[in-house]
């Protein structure tokens, strides 16, 4: 169980760290757009759409990384001060009852939407836009898969903690990640 959780965590860690570089790229592209528009009087719909694509990829592909690092907004009235075993129960139930089923629902609903986009090689509605909207929509499926996998990792780690695994209990208590 730990090996699977570690593999999922490693995978989402790599994806998260990779897509984080898109934030820098967004700044650079936006700088180019501003220089092009205000210094040279040139506009680029393609570059403007690229910023939207990159932001979507950061958000959708980085969500599981954020979950792995407990960075999502949580109403933690009870969670923050709860004992490690209570946190493990909350994480287990949250993953199995809420997170994974919602991810499966997203996959089920988004699959035809994304496949239709691929079937017609959907592109931008703008004449000079990016001719690959299907890639942007595919991020929806990737989001659901990555989040479900991270939910599975959380569930496995919660089970280990509930079985008395000291490393997982320490992590839930606020120890090392």
From TrEMBL:
This is TRAP transporter small permease protein. The complex comprises the extracytoplasmic solute receptor protein and the two transmembrane proteins. One of its GO terms (cellular component) is plasma membrane. It holds the Pfam family DctQ. Residues 26-159 form the Tripartite ATP-independent periplasmic transporters DctQ component domain. Keywords: Cell inner membrane, Cell membrane, Membrane, Transmembrane, Transmembrane helix, Transport. It is found in: Cell inner membrane. The keyword Transmembrane applies. The chain crosses the membrane at residues 21-40, 46-67, 88-114, 134-156. GO terms for molecular function: transmembrane transporter activity. It is a multi-pass membrane protein. Belongs to the TRAP transporter small permease family. Part of the tripartite ATP-independent periplasmic (TRAP) transport system. InterPro entries: DctQ (IPR055348), TRAP_DctQ (IPR007387).
């Amino acid at each position: 169980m730990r090996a699977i959780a570690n593999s999922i965590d490693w995978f989402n860690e790599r994806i998260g760290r990779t897509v984080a570089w898109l934030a820098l790229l967004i700044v650079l592209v936006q700088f180019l757009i501003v220089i092009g528009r205000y210094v040279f009087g040139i506009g680029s719909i393609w570059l403007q759409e690229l910023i939207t694509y990159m932001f979507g990829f950061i958000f959708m592909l980085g969500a599981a990384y954020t979950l792995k690092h407990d960075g999502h907004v949580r109403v933690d009235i009870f969670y923050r001060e709860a004992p490690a075993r209570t946190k493990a129960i909350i994480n287990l139930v949250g993953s199995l009852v809420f997170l994974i089923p919602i991810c499966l629902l997203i996959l089920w609903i988004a699959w035809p939407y994304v496949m239709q986009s691929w079937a017609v090689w959907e592109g931008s509605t703008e004449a000079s836009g990016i001719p690959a909207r299907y890639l942007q929509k595919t991020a929806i499926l990737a989001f659901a898969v990555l989040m479900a996998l991270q939910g599975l990792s959380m569930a496995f780690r919660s089970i280990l903690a509930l079985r008395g695994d000291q490393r997982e209990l320490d992590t839930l208590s606020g120890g090392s990640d």
